[in-house]
Design a protein that fits this description.
nine-stranded mixed β-sheet; binds manganese (II) ion; Aminopeptidase; 35% helix; seven-stranded mixed β-sheet; 2 domains; alpha/beta; binds ligand BES; Leucine Aminopeptidase, subunit E, domain 1; binds zinc ion
Length: 495
């Protein structure tokens, strides 16, 4: 899907379709009004017949409107409020794309930036339009059988917003496209079946992506991990035939002297729970347990395509959590790379085990900021549902920046506490810590576990268990939190 701008008035644009808003009470948006006048009130006559409910996202496709060059007009309901919410605006875009998908036109002029959205400017509306349209046009890549037909809408144009300089406008469009591209590869990786998307596959994909986007890629093998003393990561990998990998991706958009931001993504390519085996229902969804890793892939690619002037490093510990004769047992004690010992009481709490060694490893990059991202706990889904990621940080300013980046993009994260009191639950008589505490506050005690490995760094942790993918009939990876990360990094870079 491509995006461009059009300077002409909508009735003069030669296009397959012009998309305009109509609010309740048959009030026409400015562009709808222009088309109405050009067509000698053709639109208002139709509306009087009651063919369009102006409920948010309801659409009516009209052919052969006289007096205009466009072949069709798509009326889209904008509801009754003067100012739309962020969510309603995205609904407009999504329903417009869906209404045009499968029709005979592959291009359309979207006159939606003129619709007022509370507290949002034209830049925001433009970026949301591009991201939402791309997300709506996304298709799962089938590996086994025939591909679903691609979205037929290929070209979206937008009336040139007066207030933005042409250079800034081009940057905005290409940045939004880069983010959408990153988001799509995050979804692609997440959606792959776990027999194909193995740690080795992720390592090979990283190398391929590195070639294309000029990222330096390093892959640490099991023997390297042994030398480094990554006893926690290795304990998780022990029950699988698939060798573990630690993937490191470097993007150098700034002077070497600039301290990097490091993103660490959980890459469990399948989580059976190990010897603490998970129940059968919905276990297939544990192929999504590498969505944190996938979001690091997507963000690295987006940042490289945007050429942001920052220093960014991605670190991905990846393995499978399987039960077999060599698997780790509940009660086993291992030594992490940090030197701290861990009593593994539940082999299903494996994410924190691979992350703790990756976080310790990342210390050598002397990060300015380190952020890990993981489908870490079912408890986070109980706490926040499927709307917000859990946001934990040992620095309040960092937490606020991430929260705001999520709010801006609609890829939200919500702050959770990390108080020392919660550390109590991880105490054990047999090692420095256990890998689980009681059921209460499970997402917090998981974050507290990670906090023991990041004391020397400015650190945040995003628990994306509830937001990284959808279950049920819409089953699939969402690409979150790529938009949050990109917004945070763009803001940081000042571009
Ligand atoms: N990958 C799961 C967390 C998860 C659960 C993600 C549901 C998405 C949906 C993680 O490895 C896990 O199993 N966590 C355990 C921790 C428990 C044993 C302390 C959990 O949440 O049950
Ligand atoms: Mn698990
Ligand atoms: Zn897991």
């Amino acid at each position: 899907m491509e995006f461009s701008t059009k300077a002409q008035s909508p009735e003069k644009v030669r296009t397959g379709c012009i998309v305009v808003g109509v609010s309740e009470g048959q009030r026409l948006s400015p562009s709808a009004k222009t088309l109405d006048i050009a067509s000698s009130q053709h639109l208002s006559r139709l509306l009087k017949q009651g063919d369009l409910s102006a409920k948010i996202g309801k659409t009516l496709l009209i052919h052969g409107v006289p007096g205009i060059l466009g072949e069709r007009v798509l009326l889209v309901g904008t509801g009754k409020e003067k100012n739309l919410s962020d969510r309603d605006y995205r609904t407009l875009v999504r329903s417009s794309v869906l209404a045009l998908d499968g029709t005979g036109t592959d291009d359309a002029l979207f006159c939606l930036s003129e619709i007022p959205v509370a507290g949002r400017d034209v830049e925001w509306k433009l970026q949301q339009l591009i991201l939402t349209a791309r997300e709506t046009g996304y298709r799962i890549t089938r590996v086994a059988d025939q591909q679903d037909p691609a979205c037929t809408l290929k070209q979206i144009s937008i009336p040139t917003p007066g207030k933005i300089k042409p250079v800034a406008l081009n940057t905005l469009i290409s940045q939004s496209q880069a983010i959408a591209n990153g988001l799509a590869i995050t979804r692609d990786l997440g959606n792959l079946p776990p027999n194909l998307c193995t740690p080795t596959y992720l390592a090979e994909s990283a190398k391929a992506m590195g070639k294309q986007w000029k990222l330096k890629i390093e892959v640490l093998e099991q023997s390297d991990m042994e030398k480094l003393g990554m006893g926690a990561l290795l304990a998780v990998a022990a029950g699988s035939r698939q060798p573990p990998k630690l993937i490191v991706m470097h993007y150098n958009g700034a002077a070497k002297s600039q301290k990097p931001v490091v993103l660490v993504g959980k890459g469990i390519t399948f989580d059976t729970g190990g010897i603490s085996l998970k129940p059968a229902p919905e276990m297939d969804e544990m192929k999504f347990d590498m969505c944190g890793a996938a979001s690091v892939f997507g963000t690295m690619r987006a940042v490289a395509e945007m050429k942001l002037p920052i220093h960014l490093i991605g670190v991905i510990p990846t393995c499978e959590n399987m039960p077999d004769g060599n698997a780790t047992r509940p009660g086993d004690i291992v030594r992490s790379m940090s030197g701290q010992t861990i009593e593994i009481l539940n082999t299903d709490a494996e994410g924190r085990l691979i992350l703790c060694d990756a976080l310790t490893y990342a210390e050598k990059f002397e990060p300015d900021t380190i952020i890990d991202v993981a489908t870490l706990t079912g408890a986070c889904v109980i706490a926040l549902g499927n709307e917000a990621a859990g946001l934990f940080a040992n620095d309040d300013k960092l937490s606020e920046k991430l929260r705001v980046a999520g709010e801006y993009t609609g890829d939200r994260a919500w702050p959770m506490p990390l108080w020392e009191e919660y550390q109590e639950g991880l105490k054990t008589n047999f090692a420095d810590m256990a890998n689980v505490a009681g059921r209460a506050g499970g997402s917090i005690t998981a974050a507290c576990f990670l906090a023991r490995f990041t004391r020397k760094m400015r650190w945040a942790h995003l628990d994306i268990a509830g937001v990284a993918y959808k279950g049920g009939k819409d089953k699939g990876a969402t690409g979150r939190p790529v938009k949050l990360f990109c917004r945070y990094l763009i803001q940081r870079s000042g571009h």
